[in-house]
Amino acid sequence: MTLTQLRYVVSVAEAGSMNEAAKQQFVSQPSLSTAVRDLEEEIGVQLFLRSNHGVSITPEGKEFIGYARQVLQQYALLENKYLNRKPEKKKFSVTMQHYTFAVFAFVELVKKYGMDDYAFAVREGKTFEVMKDVKDLVSEIGILYQSSYNKSVLDKYFRDYDLSFHPLMECGVYAYVHKDHPLAEAHRIDQEELMAYPCLTFDQGMENSFYFAEEVLPVLESGRRSIKVNDRATMLNLMRGLHGYTVCCGIICEDLNGSEYKAVPIDTEEEMCIGYLCRRDAPLSDLAEEYLRELSKYREYSN
After folding, report:
1. Which of 46, 126, 148, 180 sits at a 20 to 30 Å CA gap from 213?
2. What is the pLDDT of residues 88-127, one digit of tens each?
């Protein structure tokens, strides 16, 4: 197994074609195909399915290519540090469920450190993506919640992915609505009252199970009025236009979403435990520790 072979398989995976990958790697297509096949024979794993329409990655191939990317990234760091002698930026990346306060904490982190000497990345993703990004080292930490409903299922994924979950704050459960919503001025909302309005939930894609829902009361989503969305802006527009609502932790950042939206407590004993994920085998960087300190400032807004 060589670095060249690893570069080839990653290129094939990204291009979806042996011919295109060969062009990108400046080698002949037969040479690249032979190198990939030799690697498959050496490791005893079929990485790609070949057809007249191109190639597709096998499930085993996806796992291998994830590791291959890590090896190439580490080699690039070594090359830059000891061969190219280029100054290396410190990196920090985080994947999160859709929490505005977590985005705002990220903003404060970037403002504090600047971008001249640091490289930052932030991803808002589906629940499964949060876990997978941390597992695959795409992000150093992930932000998500647990409740009595999903805890046992998520804990199993954490064990399987060799991840650890660390609580940050305990929060109540709120209906997030536009200020013109008929229930916006209520002191507390009964779940039955919400059934008359569209429940807006973030689409979880192929892993669209109640256990992966970002909304802590899946029983509300199971009602007859439910709309799935895949981005924050669409959800806010539907709150305004359809008197829709979503379920949230109650921590609102007006600096990002404006003052037109309100969080009203829902009458339930359920709670959310928002925390961060990290790999068990990897210590946190200084940037990650500072980001967690920024997040901790929002504990006073939780209950």
Report:
1. 180
2. 688 999 999 999 999 999 999 999 999 888 999 999 999 9
What pLDDT is stored for residue 53 in this prediction? 78
The pLDDT tens digits of the residues spanning 189-225 come to 998 899 889 999 999 888 777 789 888 875 455 456 7
Q: How many Cα atoms are found within 13 Å in the side-chain-facing hemisphere of 182?
A: 9
- How many Cβ atoms are within 10 Å of 141's Cβ, its own excluded? 28
